[in-house]
From TrEMBL:
Residues annotated as signal peptide: none
GO molecular function, one term: glutamyl-tRNA reductase activity
Organism, scientific name: Ichthyenterobacterium magnum
UniProt remark on domains: Possesses an unusual extended V-shaped dimeric structure with each monomer consisting of three distinct domains arranged along a curved 'spinal' alpha-helix. The N-terminal catalytic domain specifically recognizes the glutamate moiety of the substrate. The second domain is the NADPH-binding domain, and the third C-terminal domain is responsible for dimerization.
UniProt keyword terms in alphabetical order: NADP, Oxidoreductase, Porphyrin biosynthesis
General function of this protein: Catalyzes the NADPH-dependent reduction of glutamyl-tRNA(Glu) to glutamate 1-semialdehyde (GSA).
Residues given in the record as substrate binding sites: 57-60, 113, 118-120, 124
Enzyme class: oxidoreductase
Pathway the protein takes part in: Porphyrin-containing compound metabolism; protoporphyrin-IX biosynthesis; 5-aminolevulinate from L-glutamyl-tRNA(Glu): step 1/2
Name of protein: Glutamyl-tRNA reductase
Reaction(s) catalysed (UniProt annotation): (S)-4-amino-5-oxopentanoate + tRNA(Glu) + NADP(+) = L-glutamyl-tRNA(Glu) + NADPH + H(+)
Occurrences of domain Quinate/shikimate 5-dehydrogenase/glutamyl-tRNA reductase (ranges): 179-305
Active site residues according to the UniProt entry: 58 (nucleophile)
UniProt cross-references to PROSITE patterns, sorted A to Z: GLUTR
Organismal lineage: Bacteria, Pseudomonadati, Bacteroidota, Flavobacteriia, Flavobacteriales
């Protein structure tokens, strides 16, 4: 079905960019923090966009929405980031209708993640949907689609082993540390930033390194203290950042700042320091690489780690794709129902008018006219007729469009708008 229009001749699009063609620097140009997302939503409302969904992670920035032309969505993105249209066109993708639907399923199921099987994006979709709904920018189509994607991702998690073990960027960072740092349990580790990636990284550090020398720093100290309380870790004030960096062997940066928060001037230690930057935009300035004792690794480097576990996960891709196809089919069936629902509603209204007119005629002719009985019978007949037409329209062997046009013509119904 290609008619996904709700009103104003709009079409469903997915526009965005990801790690596949855009490096960390370019992704940083199009990154949207919470403030930028809110401004984008407000601009979308002002410009008459009827429904929109925004996601921005370390791996991708995407907008799903209804527009007359995809440039309307591209403009929204460029107006609220430092990225330009020219820059976007070099690395971007634009999907329409069925392809846009398939893309969201692929993204939400972890099949398009930088690390195969990473499902962290699904929580982003949920948060984004809530924000759009709060702003009145979530129509039934996108809301139902998001719920279908969530359902598919849950099934893939439980019915396949594509996410066996931890598969996120946060786990990849700990895996890198275990592989490249000797005696890691005795090293001083500083985690700067306790947002979602920071929290997940902290949990993986505690679980896999058996290290008791982990320190947390966050601009908002109480957020770090909540996490530290779970794992009995040390929390330091943001003002102690330089001091703690120079006491560390490993520094993990997972802040949500739009500009670098760590540069070479903060680092004065004389011993080797491994820095992992898990942020988009990059939060560690590239000038730290000028320091001979410092090694800087960005999340794009971490995602290239391949191991036996990852190869085993790839074996489950066909089953995951089959699950997506199954859930997508259910969504398409719902879409077909949405397509003919206005016509069925108009038909029922027309039949009820016929019944009402006939009842009025019989009421005048018969002195002992049984009002309740007549209404009950006529309503039942109307319902049976509309159910019969609805069942016919659901038949895969007939052309829904042709049948809709015939029903409208025979019963002289007003043209209905596709939903």
């Amino acid at each position: 079905m290609e008619h996904y229009v709700k009103s104003k001749g709009t079409t469903f699009y997915a526009i965005g960019l990801s790690y596949k063609k855009a490096d960390a620097k370019i992704r940083g140009h199009f990154s949207l923090d919470d403030t930028a997302k809110q401004k984008l939503i407000e601009q979308a409302t002002a410009e008459g966009i009827e429904s929109i969904l925004i996601t921005s992670t370390c791996n991708r920035t995407e907008i799903y929405g209804f527009a007359q032309h995809p440039f309307q969505l591209i403009k929204l993105l460029c107006d609220n980031t430092v990225g330009t249209v020219e820059e976007f066109q070099k690395v971007a993708y634009v999907y329409k209708n069925r392809e846009a639907i398939s893309h969201m399923f692929k993204v939400g199921s972890g099949l398009d993640s930088q690390i195969l099987g990473d499902f962290e994006i699904i929580s982003q979709l949920k948060v984004s949907a809530r924000a759009s709904k709060k702003a009145g920018l979530l129509n039934p189509f996108i809301e139902r689609l998001v719920n279908a994607v969530i359902q598919a991702s849950k099934r893939i998690k439980t019915e396949t082993e594509i996410s066996s073990g931890a598969t996120s960027v946060s786990f990849a960072s700990v895996q890198y540390i275990l592989k490249h740092v000797e005696s890691v349990s005795n090293k001083n580790i500083l985690l700067f930033g306790t947002g979602k990636i920071g929290r997940n990284t902290c949990e993986n550090l505690v679980k896999h390194t058996k290290n008791e020398h982990i320190t947390l720093i966050n601009r908002t100290k109480d957020k770090a203290e909540k996490i530290a309380g779970k794992f009995n870790l040390v929390v330091k004030d943001y003002s102690n950042l330089q001091e703690e960096i120079n006491a560390s062997d490993i520094l993990i940066v997972a802040t949500g700042a739009q500009n670098p928060t760590v540069d070479k001037h903060l680092i004065q230690n004389k011993k080797p320091l491994l820095i992992l930057d898990l942020s988009i935009p990059k939060n560690v300035h590239e000038n730290v690489s000028e320091l001979s004792q410092t090694t800087l690794v960005h999340l794009d480097d971490l995602s290239q780690i391949t191991d036996e576990t990852l190869e085993k996960r790839k074996l489950h891709i066909p089953l995951a794709q089959a699950i997506i196809k199954d859930v997508n089919q259910e969504f398409n069936e719902w879409l077909e129902t949405r397509k003919f629902a206005p016509t069925i509603k108009a038909l029922k209204h027309k039949l009820l008018n016929f019944a009402s007119t006939e009842l009025e005629t019989q009421r005048k002719k018969n002195a002992d006219f049984n009002e309740k009985q007549a209404e009950l019978i006529s309503n039942n007949i109307v319902q049976k007729i509309t159910n019969h037409f609805a069942h016919h329209l659901k038949d895969d062997d007939i052309s829904t469009d042709d049948s809709l046009e015939l029903i409208k013509k025979v019963f002289q119904l007003e043209p209905s708008t596709h939903v």
